[in-house]
Amino acid sequence: MPTHSVLFPVLLAAAGLWAQTPKYGVGRAPSPEEIRALGIIVAPDGTGLPEGSGTAIEGREVFSSRCAKCHGAKGEGGDAPALAGGQGTLNTPKPRKTVGSFWPYAPTLWDYIHRAMPFHEPGQLSHSQVYAVVAYILHLNGIAGEKQVMNAKTLPKVRMPNRNGFVADPRPDVGRIQK
Amino acid sequence: MKKNQPSSRRRLLQLGAALGGGLAARQESARAEESDRRLGKPLSAYGERSPFEKSGRSVRLTKTPEAGSSGTPLGDSYGILTPSALHYERHHSGVPNIDPARHRLVIHGMVERPLILTIEEIKRLPSVSRIYVVECGGNSGGEWGPKTGSDAQRSYGLASCSEWTGVPLSLLMAETGVRPGASWILAEGADACRMQRSIPLAKAIEDILLAYGQNGEPIRPEQGYPLRLIVPGWEGATHVKWLQRLKVTGQPHMTRDETARYSDLMPDGKARLFTFVMEAKSVVTFPSGGQKLNGAGLYEITGLAWSGRGRIERVEVTTDGGRSWRNAQLQEPRLRIAFTRFRLPWTWDGRQAVLASRATDESGYVQPSKQALIEVRGLNSGYHFNGIKLWKVQADGSVTNADA
């Protein structure tokens, strides 16, 4: 985002964001508990990942009972998107975007499943169940071994195949500019 | 002279017939009035449209209808504002039912003074009202393929325009202050999936609104009640609905909905990240797919144009499949990042015709053809389709998508 980093200090100064005293004094400071209650946020480098751990072997069970009916027994997709396969297809006429072929960061997978899945009961899995199911999905994609333990230390080290598959927005890239 | 006489006599006769007919019609309608003069409905607290009007959002039922989209019936629209009840929907885990008295917005992370605010407190702050279009990054996604949408709603309907009322986010960011190194904001909704998107802090300060009002009343639940972001000109998914927190950070969070989704896959297998701006776009809404012309003669071609980069400067219309273009009249007001209504009178000769519109915005950007987009981006980018939409008027007056 080159334009944003150039504009940024100017805008910050213009908006008086470094001003020391609040002008309106609305609201109050949240307690640490109030912030925690909103839930975990995981950064792409793994910051925010909680305690707990799991392996693909454990994850298989969670997956077949809580995920497979929508995503398929092996994550091949069904009523919900495919989670496995598709590596090497992104530059073909029929790309298959999955966790294995497309997602750039492993901690983001923990973050998303923890926040949003299973679809009808998000937030119901324990932290270790999420690590386990993440391990299983990575295993289905050939990214992690069956017995590899996933936790706050190991997950950020997982190298996703499409880690370097993203580029910045070059638009306007099509059409004429008339002036 | 001579020739005039029979014709003027005929005119007289016609006049007489018309007068007589008019009289009969008056008597008829007087009788009808009498029989219709029953009392109407009494006062009502919240209005409903006429039971004769049936236009609605295009809802596709799937196994998980809480994750999906429904389009605005653009072909039935007048003017530039979308009725709130017809604003397009895009939800990832359904519409939450939020009690505003219990809802809170938390601003934390790399700020000097974290804040927790009630809706009531946010409403006490200086507010603004602005008319903005909101368009889903996936609007017209089906148009990349060989089979395009059959009507305006199903092809271009994930775009709607409302008047939004709220507080400039810059004002609250000045209250919290930011720490050195802060450069992004992670916005999170209170829907079941806690939808998250990262937004550059610079945009937050430039023109983002924390909106609680839509078209003069509180935002509809489908649109984010009681609080949402309005991120002018950027793809809809950044306008996080049911907003419950803003975390100021030093990096984008690469959430699922900004990496695995809403990124544009190019032919070389690389995907473009953070394709925020919705580029200039337009569509003819009359005559458009599914509508019917009632015989040759005069019609008014009309449609909508908009751009995430600002004001619409020009809309050209073709009725011969792109061989020739004419400037349409642009209806005032022409607001930045809002629907602009265009019109052009057209006499249809009753033969097959191919209609389309092409918008130019104040940056000079001209809406491209579908072919031009595909040449650069291939067939699999999925999002951000803003190509020219062709409608075919058949000799019988029916209107279809041009590839039908």
Q: How does the SSE layout of this entry go?
A:
The complex is a heterodimer of chains A (179) and B (404).
Chain A: H1 2-14, H2 32-37, E1 53-54, H3 56-66, H4 68-71, H5 106-116, H6 127-140, E2 150-151, E3 166-167
Antiparallel strand pairs in A: 1-2
Helix pairs in contact in A: 3-6, 5-6
Chain B: H1 4-36, E1 58-59, E2 68-71, E3 89-91, E4 104-109, E5 115-118, H2 119-124, E6 128-135, H3 152-156, E7 159-168, H4 169-176, E8 184-189, E9 196-200, H5 201-206, E10 209-214, E11 217-218, E12 228-230, E13 243-249, H6 256-259, E14 264-265, E15 271-272, E16 281-286, E17 297-306, E18 312-318, E19 326-327, E20 329-330, E21 340-348, E22 353-361, H7 370-377, E23 391-393, E24 399-401
Parallel strand pairs in B: 4-13
Antiparallel strand pairs in B: 1-2, 2-3, 4-5, 6-7, 7-10, 8-9, 8-13, 10-11, 10-12, 14-15, 16-17, 17-21, 18-19, 18-22, 20-21, 22-23, 23-24
Q: Can you tell me the overall shape of chain B?
A: globular
Quote the distance from N terminus to C terminus of chain A: 25 Å
Question: Could you state the order of secondary-structure elements of chain A as H and E?
Answer: HHEHHHHEE
What is the terminal-to-terminal distance of chain B? 55 Å
**Range of helix content of chain A:** 25-40%
Number of strands of chain A: 3
CATH architectural type of the largest domain in chain B: Alpha-Beta Complex
CATH class type of the domain at 51-164 in chain A: Mainly Alpha
The oligomerization state is: heterodimer
**CATH fourth-tier homologous superfamily of the largest domain in chain B:** Oxidoreductase, molybdopterin-binding domain
Rg of chain A, Cα atoms, Å: 21 Å
Under CATH, the topology of the largest domain in chain B can be stated as: Sulfite Oxidase, Chain A, domain 2
At CATH's second level, what is the architecture of the domain at 51-164 in chain A?
A: Orthogonal Bundle
How many helices of chain A? The count is: 6
Query: Please, how many domains of chain B?
Result: 2
Query: Number of DSSP helices of chain B?
Result: 7
DSSP strand tally of chain B: 24
Q: Which two chains touch over the largest interface?
A: A-B, 67 and 82 residues
CATH class of the largest domain in chain B: Alpha Beta
Pick out the low-confidence regions of chain B.
1-21
Shape of chain A: globular
